[in-house]
Sequence to fold (939 residues):
Amino acid sequence: MVFASLIFLYIFLPLNLILYYVTKNAMYRNIMLTVFSFVFYAWGEPVWILLLVGSALIDWLNALWVDKSRGTKWAKAGVWSSVIFNIGLLVLFKYSGFLYENINNVFGLALAIPAFALPVGISFKVFQTISYVVDVYRGEIRTQKSFLKYMMFVSLYHHLVAGPIVRYAHIAHEVDNRRFKIKDISAGISRFCIGLFKKVCIANVAGEFVMKYMDGNLGTISSLEAWFGVIMFSVQIYFDFSGYSDMAIGLGKMFGFHYKENFNYPYIANSATDFWRRWHISLGTFFRDYIYIPLGGNKKRWILNLFIVWFLTGLWHGASWNFILWGLYFGVLIFFERLFLQKVLNKLGRFVSHVYLLFVAVIGWTLFHFTDFSRLKQYVGIMFGNTPHPNWSLSMQLVLQENMFWIALAFILCMPVYKYSMRFVRWVLRFDRYQIIWAKVWLMTFAFNFGVLFVCTALLAGKSYNPFIYYRF
Amino acid sequence: MGKSTRSKTRSILAMIHFWIFGIALTTFGIIFFITPKQTVSDYEKRKLSPFPTFSWNSFFHGGYIDSIDLYVADNFPYRDQLVEFSFGTKAWRGIKNDEIAFYDAADIKKADPVNVKPADSVSDTAATDTTAGPPGEEVNNLFIVEGRAMEIFGGNCNMAQSYARTINKYQTELKGKVQIYDIAVPSAIEYFAPPQYAKQYSNQKKNIDCVYGALDPAIKGVDAHSSIGAHKNENIYFRTDHHWTGLGAYYAYTAYCASAGLTPLQLNQMEHKQKTGYLGSLYWLTRDARLKETPDTVDYWKIPGKYKTTAQHKGSDKFYASSIYAEGASGANGYGVFLGGDYPLVKIESEVKNGKKAILVKNSYGNPFATYLPYHYETVYVIDYRYYTGSIAKLIEDEKVTDLIFLNGVFSINTSWHIMMIGKNLHGVGKKAPVPTPEDTTKPKKDSIIGKKEDSVPKEDGPKDE
Fold:
């Protein structure tokens, strides 16, 4: 299931809220959340529920084992067992096809390529559980003794399918005792609506343009259209992903969990290094804490460590060479920034470094988008002028004209407008003796949320509109 | 105001927020469950997804659940109004050009109704209704200029000649048995696109000349192009639909009569009837407000005389009673007034006794044209080559048919699927029309870039109703 769907909004979510809050019994609530998470997960392919439960059980037992044999060499064995098991799952389901393909290519073999379907959210789940077992080993958290609670943590539908990568350490306390706070729920609803808006009103619309220019017939587009296409892809991927994270954070709040932020306005960054501190933060910190630093971090062989991390970051995004290339591309950029580029950028000033970042990010998204290298080559060629079509055409003009407000809105929302307006509101509220301003802000939020809900419902219903010229009765 | 009162007020407001939000969601959910469900959508010309029947296989592989998604999306309360509203929001995105709009075929023909993958088993899923059907070609790119929607024509001479060669095969085979006519019908853009946009589309006159130039000299090519063009100021093409009007077809009919040596009926010899407020296919594809402002009128002229009309339905050999004018046709189906829509074979018998019998081979473009013919023939057979499975050669032999007329719009003439189907009709295509392998029936697509869920989605292309 996905959050931005009618069935989730109008059937799944209200049922979940009602059945969750109908009693105060903590055990009952945990069961409810787990059951609903299972249903949510099963909505993709029910068969993967077995995998989810099975692997959660193994990780849970591993953590207990690590805890029990603490101080002995067996503790480490527990960690390795969990790491190998999880990475094994990932390799089996996500990378086996890719591995076989490459083995076939390198050795000229024709091994049958295994065709496993990818269980939804496995990349996120694997990192979540690895961090749990490792944190138990490091003594940073206490083991969760209840399998139900652990199962609930792993399967929580808020973050299971598309992140953020929620570490057990961050919500351990809330797994055991969540408190009902009406203000949290209210804030959660608002946050969810923001995410829904980002996904449905911005990302989905940008996606239409991406389809048209990047996934369409490359023989018919101009340079300008190619740039427009990839800029729209940059918009789409940011709003899609951060919208999803917002919805996850909002849902978490509705049920008493506080997840960490996953994005911090990445497109206002002024270097690749800065970009990655702001983009998919939970992934970056995972690689830092569980790969980069254990490998030796900045102290030992940092160049090798850096490239290992960026190779893996690329690979994590998908089983295809273009993702690896994309990861290494950022590795190289960050490498040069550490050597000298950052100093140069600092000298050149904020504006230039910001333009630099946007340029490299957009080029990066081109690498990210095309799994087919011949199309990638062709597309980059078109971007840099290798096309017979003139930049300015009637259809380009109409596309820009008919979407100018939307484009402006999308660009503005890449900037921390919300953050600063909230800061402003808080400042104003200091003088708000009689709650009048506060009431106004509340009313505006309220109106925004319902406006978003209504518009998104209509847009989602509009997606099902599928007219035929030819009768299909 | 003290801190505690402040905190209390805020809690109360948060409570109200939560309750109203919860109630809004729940209410819609409840309305969804209790409202009666429609089975078809007239606007979209398709069946709405029914609730799927359960099977373990389909359940475990996700097909069952995907069908539930489709069902919910298709049967959501107030869906028509919400869809209408969602199209309205497009106007907020920027400034519409008053004069012109451009619609990319890919934008209006969504391959991906609700982001679900096609079910594995065909029998128990709702998805099949939207995915099945022979692939022909897709909707073409559209122009909207001054309240008129027009498909952008991109045909070329090679394709047109390939169409002509197919008609020539009939001539070679049926030499001496029938007189063959070919009527190539231009589309609206040929007459109504402002000259400044001429670069955006191909010239249809040239394309039709390619057809006629390649025809066997024994075949008579009918010059509908200039006959229709002489009446540019009349209502010869719908503004909101991809078809021509009854009047446009009438002028093609007069051209045909000139070519076949018949005296055409004058308009005032026929009973003129009208249906107002018609919004056609191109409106429903784009939902463009500029089209809605000026709906079309469906005009039809009833020929004098008494006729017996029967029609074969798809997938059946039997003839059922039918009529030349389906006067009940209404709403989005207004064009259905001509012949009542598309049947594989319609047989119209008149009281005329002149020994002449005709076969008209057509798609929906030919329907209004067909209504004028029965006046001149003992029997007219109207064959829709997309559905007819019999052999035209045999029908000519058996029924002693004298005239064989091919009528096609330029879009069909320039589409290989249509050419192929016409070719196959010469000797019949057997019980079931062959379905050519689509180039790419499934295309992986993701709902969410980060969802990592690779969804392959059905791509619907069916034979286009020309």
